[in-house]
Design goal:
The complex is a heterodimer. Chain A is an all-beta fold. Chain A is 0% helix and 51% strand. Chain A has no helices and eleven strands. In chain A, a hairpin with a 6-residue loop joins strand 4 and strand 5 (45-49). Chain A is globular, with a radius of gyration of 13 Å. Chain A starts with a strand and ends with a strand. The relative contact order of chain A is 0.35. In chain B, the strands form two sheets. In chain B, strands 2, 4, 5, 6, 9, 10 and 11 form a seven-stranded mixed sheet that branches. A four-stranded antiparallel sheet of chain B has the order 1-3-8-7, with no helix packed on it. Chain B is mostly beta strands. Chain B has strands at 3-7, 10-12, 18-25, 32-40, 44-51, 60-62, 70-75, 80-85, 94-102, 110-111, 115-119. The chains are: A mainly beta, B mainly beta. The interface between A and B is medium-sized, with 21 and 18 residues.
Chain lengths: 106, 121
């Protein structure tokens, strides 16, 4: 299976700040990458697919980028409702998830 | 509104069986790939099983850890998906989510709220 390594595991940021979360695949996944947001007590929600396509209803302050084995999720102008855990997932082969990044407010 | 609702979770003894159900509504069920994803504190998120649509002969796949023990199935007439879990192990303890994804791309557009499964004596 393809291993997905996320960093950092946790992150503290201030309102209005720009936040970046990284995800590295153990082999080339050809942009077959999704990002999810999971708020406390809720199920994950799709944010980004195909590495950089915004899912329906997702605010434009979220963006995804990357290629090959390196990908990132950026949140511009952090809002209080963005406090959550974020997970990457590859679907180039049998789908696997990253370990998650817990985002908190400073 | 798109909705997935899981049921059937609970406490089961090691080597026991449990069947999870997922009721779907608000979308064209028979055009979506369906999956079960589980989440446990120790192991994060993991895809358990997936099933494709009729035109792909309801192709299925499973995580290595559940092959031979779990079976995923779907009933398009009822917009239901199931997960039969046999010979359960303590490491199967997790919150199980039903998920739906557009055909062929195995990311998950929609998730249910989940049903908790605990395997313990």
């Amino acid at each position: 299976d393809i291993q997905m390594t996320q960093s950092p595991a946790s992150l503290s940021a201030s309102l209005g700040e720009t936040v970046t979360i990284e995800c590295r695949a153990s082999e080339d996944i050809y942009s077959n990458l999704a990002w999810y947001q999971q708020k406390p007590g809720n199920s994950p929600q799709l944010l980004i697919y195909d590495a950089n396509s915004l899912a329906d209803g997702v605010p434009s302050r979220f963006s995804g980028s990357g290629s090959g084995t390196q990908y990132s999720l950026k949140i511009n102008s952090l809002q209080s409702e963005d406090v959550a855990s974020y997970f990457c997932q590859q679907y180039n082969n049998y789908p696997t998830f990253g370990g998650g990044t817990k985002l908190e407010l400073k | 509104e798109m909705q997935l609702v899981e049921s059937g979770g609970g406490l089961v003894q090691p080597n026991g069986s449990l069947k999870l159900s997922c009721a779907a509504s608000g979308f064209t069920f028979n055009t979506y790939d369906m999956s079960w994803v589980r989440q446990s504190p120790g192991k994060g998120l993991g895809l358990v099983a997936g099933i494709s649509i009729k035109s792909y002969n309801y192709a299925t796949f499973y995580a290595d850890s559940v092959k031979g023990r779990f079976t995923i199935s779907r009933d398009d007439s009822q917009s239901m998906v199931y997960l039969q879990m046999n010979n359960m192990k303590t490491e199967d303890t997790a919150l199980y989510y039903c998920t739906a994804g557009e055909l062929g791309d195995w990311y998950f557009d929609f998730w249910g709220p989940g049903t908790m499964v605990t395997v313990s004596s």
